[in-house]
């Protein structure tokens, strides 16, 4: 926020601040600092005791977009994982979608046809990288030996310590069982977007 700790603590000190309304300028700085934690700016501006400015009512939730492709096919090798943009969502949308910390959400693209009709080539998916437990069925992005990223449906396997890696386009891509030790989970797919 660009403030010293004593300058900030003034607003949390009952003796000095007396719990009065926050100054608008301070609320704006505080809202910007708390946005990466998923706290809506409108919640902070309520502490001013004034009507929430329109600009603060419409602050979008932002999720980083990475220049990474997960294969819905036989695997894409990833060499560079850098955020290249942010995708904006309506205020409060992410909170209705997930309870995850916004820092744990990543958007990447999908290449290939193995997950048709669920995911198509050039769709984008949002991952929650805090969800890596494969004991629950669902769509996950995994590394299957090395740098290759795959987006696949994960299901139960016939033997303990294994999972079934399932492609929704089953006529072309058969399911396979893999040991949990051979799989690195990147995150669970919680949202998709694509062309119509």
TrEMBL record:
The keyword Protease applies. Residues 65-190 form the Peptidase S24/S26A/S26B/S26C domain. One of its GO terms (molecular function) is DNA binding. GO terms for cellular component: membrane. GO terms for biological process: proteolysis. Transmembrane segments: none annotated. InterPro entries: LexA/Signal_pep-like_sf, Pept_S26A_signal_pept_1_Ser-AS, Peptidase_S24_S26A/B/C. Keywords: DNA-binding, Hydrolase, Protease, Transcription, Transcription regulation. Gene3D superfamilies: Umud Fragment, subunit A. The keyword Aminoacyl-tRNA synthetase does not apply. It comes from the Bacteria. PANTHER family: FELS-1 PROPHAGE TRANSCRIPTIONAL REGULATOR (PTHR40661:SF3), PTHR40661. This is Helix-turn-helix transcriptional regulator. It comes from Pararhodobacter aggregans. The lineage of its organism: Bacteria, Pseudomonadati, Pseudomonadota, Alphaproteobacteria, Rhodobacterales.
């Amino acid at each position: 926020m660009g403030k010293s700790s004593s300058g900030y603590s003034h607003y949390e000190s009952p003796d000095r601040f007396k719990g009065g309304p926050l100054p608008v300028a301070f609320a704006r700085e505080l809202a910007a600092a708390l946005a990466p934690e998923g706290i809506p700016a409108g919640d902070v501006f309520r502490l001013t005791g004034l009507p929430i400015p329109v600009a603060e009512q419409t602050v979008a939730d932002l999720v980083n977009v990475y220049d990474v492709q997960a294969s819905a096919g036989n695997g894409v090798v990833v060499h560079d994982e850098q955020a290249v943009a942010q995708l904006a969502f309506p205020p409060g949308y992410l909170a209705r979608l997930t309870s995850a910390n916004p820092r744990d959400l990543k958007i990447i693209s999908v290449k290939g046809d193995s997950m048709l009709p669920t995911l198509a080539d050039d769709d984008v998916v949002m991952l929650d990288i805090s969800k890596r437990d494969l004991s629950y069925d669902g769509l996950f992005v995994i590394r299957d030996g090395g740098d290759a990223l795959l987006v696949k449906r994960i299901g139960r396997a016939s033997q303990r310590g294994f999972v079934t890696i399932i492609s929704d386009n089953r006529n072309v891509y058969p399911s396979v069982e893999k040991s949990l030790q051979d799989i690195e989970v990147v995150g669970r797919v919680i949202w998709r977007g694509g062309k119509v």
